[in-house]
Amino acid sequence: MWIDVAQTVFDGLMVGGLYATVAVGITLVFGIMGILNFAHGQMVMLGAYIAFFAVTAGFGFWVGLLLAMVAMGLFGLILERLIFRHTLTDHMTGLTVSLGIIMVVENLAAALFTPDHRNFDPPLSGSVQVLGITLSAQRLLVLVLVMSLVGAFYLFLQKTSFGKAIRATGQNRTGAALVGVQITQITALVFVLGSALAGAAGALYGSLFAITPYMASGPLMKGFILTVLGGLGSVPGAVLAGFLLGLAESFGSRYFSAAFNDGYGFILMIITLLFFPTGLFGVRGKARV
Amino acid sequence: MNSAAQPLAQTHEAAGKAARVPATPRLALLAYWLPVAGWLMLAVLMVVPAIGGSRYLLYLGTLIALQAALATSLNLVMGYAGQFAMSHAAFYGFGAYASALLVGSAGLGFWISIPVTMLLAAVLAACIGYPALRYTGGVHLALITFAFGELARLLAANWHSVTGGPMGMRVLYSPEPLLGFNFANSRGLYWLAAGMLLVSLLVVFLVQRSRFGRALVAVREDEVLAAFLGINVVGHKLAAYVMSSMMAAMIGTAYAPFMSFISPELLNAHETISLIGVLIIGGIGTLSGPIIGTLVFFGIPELLRLAQLYRLVILGAVIIVGVLFMPQGIAGLIRQRLRPWTRVAGAATADAIKR
Question: Touching check for A266 and chain B: CB below 8 Å?
Fold first, then answer.
């Protein structure tokens, strides 16, 4: 019995960690730039394709992961310089523009990569036995990678001067500018970081699930649920919500119904919002009218 | 856009000087008669597919009428209340599925299924809208409605026993005759779709002119100020969202017999994004904007015979460029250019009446 539960917990943490990697990028970009980037899911998709092409070209998974992060970071930089810097702090405009980017990127990707499902061989195969639980090695690797990515990112935000500048900008743009933070550089940095995290999430998604040009909406939906659940703009909130959602989904599909898998998170979010209207860790930019 | 706007602005100034002289300038006349001309044009456009014998024209007309009706109903919540609802396609699909199930499996009449579907949609929209709209900013609604839209699509794709899964569902009924009018053929279905468009337009037209509509605009412009004026902000936003979703479900009921096939792709977020693009091209928050946008969005690719894929790429690019450089859209631009003259025109007609 408890082996079953432990297995479910492990699965939940793995999936939750993947969701959290997506959500951290969304919530950070929203917290700092005030832009809800709907095209974040498209970056996950592109990251998965980059990893796929790197692996099939024989460079291996690690190069693919790195390439996905770098390429998406660059893509993010281009988007930020060309488009998003003109819509800073204007929620609705930024959101609408990102919808346009979805249409362009996704349909071009469908034309370029064909809608076929793709897979690449994960770097680790087989399984590991721990205390009688059978764990897939690749899933374990994804969990470790996701944990270290999110952890490293959190330390970066808390400990480095860049991280401090980012947090200061999130708290008060004008105040941060007054004490000498280069706002334009910080927003670019934040967008690049968020996009690189999306690329990494894409490479990890691709090592577990099928890659298609239309895969973006799943991760994006989960990322949005986490963003709301954890509180808009809160990075620790998004991570915690990620693990909560992962556990809810894996327990729900294990003990209730697997067909309704994607619904558990939504119900969890609606119920949470009824009691914590700004999410679990939400403080930003909300006023009751 | 700038090069085109410059000479226009100059003519405005030139005409402005002339306006102080009693003669009514042409632009003022245009400003006065444009709405009338617009309604007449709409009426002509609506009649053409029905009297033209071509089946293709009838099909295209039905499609455009449904899309224009959807854009009009989305405009209520996005354009007037200023709330970002990403669940419009989900409610459209909900309407199609729910009415198909009510008529096909539960054996209800088609015309009874419409209000029942709308009622169900209203309950659903209220359940989603209330937690999402309690706080300012509007971002919560965008996030939650997007998540709901995806969830609805996944449910439609995975719930095999009810919806037929990703392969979709065949619809074998057609609307019963009503008041002696046959709705079972393609011409009848066209009139059904056109009727949906007229109903949506009428609702938005009445809302726009009502106290409720002006309160919505106040909420859109400044929620805090609106609350200060005694407007129930959450209630108004919620009412706009529920109304708009109900209308989407109503239009969905016409989709099912028209296509005689429903698939989960109907609920795709792309459909909602296309509608938002249509609103932006046409002019958000204007009565004619959604119709102009739909005609542009459907008309131009149809003329150029573009593939669906590139049509969407171009629409995406148009959304980006439009939001950055022409956020008021075509109808908004026309209104903005003609606004100085509407008052002159009003005064001139008043003079004419006095004489």
Answer: yes
